[in-house]
Amino acid sequence: MQKVQDIKDNLDKRLKRVEGQVKGIRRMINEDKNCQEILTQVSAARSALKMVGNLVLNHYAAECLCNTVSVKDKKTKIEELQKLIQTITRFAD
Predict the structure, then answer these.
(1) What is the CATH number of the domain that holds 82?
(2) Residue 18 CB neighbour total at 10 angstroms
(3) Number of domains comprising the chain
(4) 3-state secondary structure of 43
(5) Any idea which of 16-25, 27-36, 44-53, 65-74 has the lowest mean pLDDT?
(6) CA 68 to CA 85: how far, in whole Å?
(7) Which of 61, 59, 51, 44 is nearest to 8 (CA)?
(8) What share of the chain in percent tops pLDDT 90?
(9) Residue 61 and residue 41: Cα distance in Å, rounded?
């Protein structure tokens, strides 16, 4: 499993890239660029942001699993699993 700091660094790098993409989209709109070009950049930014979400979700799922494996209370394990499923369901596009 990756170190938490490595995950944070990766997420920070990706979020900076998304931030740059969004600024670029704003600039393209202000410069009256072609709609197709703008939509292409919006799609790229959405994909990049979705990847950020996937990384956070994967980390969350791994952490939940690690944290509940040692829990002896079956009810607590089920509650954690249900919260994880709710998160995944909300995240699904």
Answers:
(1) 1.20.58.1000
(2) 19
(3) 1
(4) helix
(5) 65-74
(6) 14
(7) 59
(8) 45
(9) 30
